[in-house]
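Re: export button greyed out
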Amino acid sequence: MHKEITIYDLAKKLKLSPATISRALSDHRAINKKTKKKIVDTAEALGYRSNTFASSLRKKKSNTIGVIIPRLNSHFVASVLGAVEKIANDSGYNIIMSQSMESVAREIANTKTMFNSRVDGLLVSLAYDTGNIDHFDKFIKRGIPVIFFDRVFEDDKCVRIVIDNFKNAYDVTTHLAAQGCTRIMHITGNLKRNVYAERYNGYRKALRDAGLPFQKDLLLSGELNEASGAAAGEKILAMKKLPDGIFGANDTSTASCMHVLKQGGIRIPGQIAIAGFNNDPISRIVEPNLTTINYPAYQMGEIAATTLINHLAGVSSISNTNIIVLRSELIIRSSSLKK
Amino acid sequence: MHKEITIYDLAKKLKLSPATISRALSDHRAINKKTKKKIVDTAEALGYRSNTFASSLRKKKSNTIGVIIPRLNSHFVASVLGAVEKIANDSGYNIIMSQSMESVAREIANTKTMFNSRVDGLLVSLAYDTGNIDHFDKFIKRGIPVIFFDRVFEDDKCVRIVIDNFKNAYDVTTHLAAQGCTRIMHITGNLKRNVYAERYNGYRKALRDAGLPFQKDLLLSGELNEASGAAAGEKILAMKKLPDGIFGANDTSTASCMHVLKQGGIRIPGQIAIAGFNNDPISRIVEPNLTTINYPAYQMGEIAATTLINHLAGVSSISNTNIIVLRSELIIRSSSLKK
DNA sequence: TTGTAGGCGTTATCAC
DNA sequence: GTGATAACGCCTACAA
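Workaround output, generated via the alternate export path:
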């Protein structure tokens, strides 16, 4: 087995004190340049590696950021996580990641792990059915910053980074109405989750403003994945009176739904105009191209990570009532253009 | 600021020794059941949390698995990572993740971070241009297991988990030839990378076996993303003599290419039969549906994680010459069916 | 500019 | 069953 080199070994070898070695290796300014170089060189030569455990134990800092996401199965989440990792990596932070698999129980468990791992900060997008954020209190109590993104909880305890889901949904629905749609269906997720609730509210408001009635049978709640999208398509095909517009709360399921409808002989957008949400690559590939909302996922990840890291570095402090709203807007493509 | 509770605090409170506390908390069998319960309860009550730094320092184990991936931007990578995280989490391991962004330099840097973080084991899919795996020697030398998946290096130092890229590519190409294609184009990535090299070789072999000549102008190397797929489409549209078949090395770029071709008035599969690779969701949504290879991404992640964890637990040992080949096969869909 | 010394919180090895 | 004690490797007052 390999013998690990420590600063004591270097100290003995160079006839210096461990303190000097430690300082040199962390580039302390009060160390003679020549000594420093000598130390760094022999450290390299002997294959020394700093022991982060000892260092973290002493400094009470892990240099690690925890990320909790619902599930790594969408283009959106992958983009956010990719951006977070990039920023964190560039700033010398490690990322430890875990999935709640859309379950609060698991989210709470993940929370405990992160807590025990003593992450310096936390980035979180909530599970489907998370109804309160008490399990983050232990972080807050100890001053460990927690930033929520996308799937947040309406509570001023923590920073939230979001888009204007209400407005986006309002815009989509209004656009469909302007195309002449009068029976606009909304396919969405769990309405307990803020993002879906807000999109639903935006949809309702737009209907009202367009003088259209809300009809219960035009609201479909599901898991918003490929399968549920297809199921929605089948359900629609079986309806006595078809909708003439569909606003889906994400692109994956909406594209899948559209696919089934086309297979069923429905003309898009002629018979049914369709719009999704997220601007996933798939929205640009399906035919007709999907009208959607341009959700700046990568940017959201960058901002979440940057905000957290700046706060940790003391560069800027995050107030507890901060909400950051990113710009997101309607992209009109042919799937919704009746005219 | 919060005062952290340590086992000393518990010891004092309960008039026991720190050693007993430690044993009780790690469920040591030689501790009286009643004492154990008392200890665990007060630990809970006082909000004690074990200090993993101290523990890791003492035990010389981090309970952490490092994962290095090229980039978190494909359905494939997200699936693998999702599976790895799930398995690791279920087994009590943490995941620390980093992206090489397809650059060896960054991969080497990530390697150093992981090394310093003292991961217990490493799961790696190589960057585009990684030409040797010397930067993993330091792990191997210290007996830290490294498992490569998908993008591997032909070297018996480490375990490799792969699919039979050669055979898959051979099958795809042969299928296209059987459909009557005689000018089969291959759109691929960096041929230095094993997966693309093998697919290329399979393609060449199939051409030979089908009595078809290999033509340089029917080989296109790119980044295999949405943009490069579209660019390939444009390039094809500008060709004097069109190919009558396309085998793309992934679904994302192939779907994008097909989209451009359709826009350009090409009938698929009539004029050009098309096949991709990976069985991404997009392959089931585009029209016509994409013939592809069913790459078991999630399963690959599960197996990689399980193999590593079992090895770490001493359950099973991984020999240094192990190659695990997962089953992957051709899925024929309408994009390639001329008849 | 460098050295001394104590402590960060655990766990493993002896003892009893 | 439980306790005493010595590492694990690093950092940082405080001294020199």
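Residues 42 and 250 of chain A are 56 Å apart (CA to CA). The button fix ships in the next patch.
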